[in-house]
Fold this sequence. Notes:
The chain is of the alpha/beta class. Helices cover 31% and strands 16% of the residues. It has helices spanning 25-35, 44-57, 68-84, 111-115, 134-143, 162-171, 223-232, 256-265, 269-286, 339-348, 401-408, 420-432, and strands at residues 61-65, 98-102, 119-123, 149-153, 175-179, 187-188, 191-192, 199-203, 216-220, 292-294, 302-303, 310-313, 320-323, 328-331, 354-355, 371-373, 376-377, 393-394, 397-398, 409-411.
Amino acid sequence: MFDKSGKHEKFKEKVWLASPTMHGEELQYMQEAYDTNWMSTIGVNINEVETQIAEKVGTDHAVALATGTASIHLSVKLAGEYLYGRGEMGKGALAGKRVFCSDMTFDATVNPIVYEGGIPVFIDTEYDTWNMDPAALEKAFELYPDVKLIDLAHLYGTPGKIDEIRAIAKKHDAKIIEDAAESLGSTYKGQQTGSFGDYGCISFNGNKIICGSAGGAFLTNSLEDSKKVRKWSTQARENASWYQHEELGYNYRMSNIIAGVVRGQIPYLEEHIAQKKAIYERYKAGLGDLPVKMNPYDEKNSVPNHWLSCLLIEPEAMCRQVRGEKDALYIPEHGKSCPTEILEAIRSINSEGRPIWKPMHMQPIYRMHDFVTREGNGRARTNAYIIEGSVSKKDGLPVDIGMDIFNRGLCLPSDNKMTAEQQDRIIEVIRACFE
């Protein structure tokens, strides 16, 4: 139980991890849809969202969809049919084909591959950005040279090592699905994330940097691809006076009501990013003398949107912590702490933190799937006949970097409506955990 800072007063109203920040225009556009009776998946709001998001990200086309997951799914389907042909009905466009995926991410990045019959192969993380490790990706191509699709996510709004990953993809003639669900507004060398891959995906879920309560968008520079995704998202209806269907479709189109919320949010993207950056910098300054680090980014080449501010505890400052499938235990130690203790402390004052995304290769549903580190096969790394530590680390670093970040990291309250005074109190509670 947390008791090091039990005297801290609780917030009267909960401070959330990341909640919607509304401005008023959203309601006007929703009312417009209501008054004009465009309550379906057609309307001015949808058209405006597609135009404005494409302009904002820098792609030629955007297709507004019901969720960010729908965008990833249709990207996977599009890539599969391009690479391998349409295939048999019901087997999926990637039936039996491997796809290289980010490992430390939300499962919505990965699940659509399985929807289409594909086999995810998880690529380990690197410490510099907490994203897909290019060295591990290159090793994966040595192991599986026939793979032709990479599913890349930008974690917590931080761009990955895009140039290196694109160079590897080009070398192996592979396509990239770019999951920018968390990174709308982030840039790499001045270019927006979501515009680097063959297919880009963003999310307007309720906790994202701009929100529609739901919704997402597919991004592309190909008119043909945008038309195909738009067709699939409206049940693949053919151009006939009756309902004619020649291929499998989905009910994935964005509602004109949801689009009204997104349309009202778009002008505030830069303002939200500035607020998130201020939160990140306050944490960095307030926790600077503790044995912790903030989630990193490439300061030379990238500008993240700082969607979530995260913390990584130094190995020597970790108290003992054990996690099961649903519960965790820890032993408090003077001068040390762990994610479980800090999250418990944050929760004790009516605020919300969260563990780092549990890597996909650690998830029960995917434990039998391949996992590749920069050293090669990441599974079965132990051996009773080898001296302890000789296979668990390389050059002093853990072989399984994603697991290490998950064990030592946590997401801090990052709501852009949080006041500086509220954040100062959260910082005090975190500091008390190390006393």
